[in-house]
Amino acid sequence: MTENTLRITFGEEEEIKQAARERLRRAEAGEVDETIEQDVRFVLNFETYEDIERLMRPSTLGIIETIVTERPASIRDVAEEVERDYREVHRNLRELEELGVVEFEETGQRKRPILRAGTEEIEFSFRFPRSSVSPTGASA
Fold it and tell me: Where in 1-140 does DSSP place strands (E)?
């Protein structure tokens, strides 16, 4: 994975927090090591099936793929590339923005969709940890 990768995870909140606490503990103890430096990757963790469902729809994944591979200059360019109605694509992009996956660079009246923080790749990691409560809130 590179520094320019947005890592999207599911069910890894505790692991992410624990890793950050461990890096902090080691840094406060005065340790100097590459492994304690802040992880430069961007991690976006989801904990509900509803958010994952919004992200993993084929139409949404097509938009993400277009942003990564084609680097469109505007929302209209995305709509043309995926061969869908502008309004639908605009709605999907707003949803991706709400989820934290996409942001916009504004130039004049154009809004160019890009991955969060200018990252260039996405990596997905889904983990289903054993627990007594599922992400939907129901007991297992």
Answer: 5-10, 42-46, 102-107, 110-115, 121-126
- For the record, the structure tokens of 42 come out as 């961007």
Q: Which residues contact 101 (CB under 8 A, 6 or more apart)?
A: 6, 8, 44, 55, 64, 115, 116, 122
Are 85 and 92 contacting, i.e. CB atoms less than 8 angstroms apart? no
Rounded Cα distance between 79 and 72, Å, is 10
Query: 132 and 16 in contact (C-beta within 8 Å)?
Result: no
The token pair at 116 is 């969060």
Convert the pLDDT of each residue in 80-132 to its tens digit.
999 999 999 999 999 999 999 999 999 888 999 999 988 888 888 887 766 55
57-78: per-residue pLDDT in tens? 999 999 999 999 999 999 999 9
- Are 10 and 45 within 8 A, CB to CB? yes
More confident residue, 30 or 137: 30
The full length of the chain comes to: 140
The residues that bridge with 44 in the sheet, in sequence order, are: 8
Rounded Cα distance between 137 and 139, Å, is: 7
Give the global pTM.
Answer: 0.74
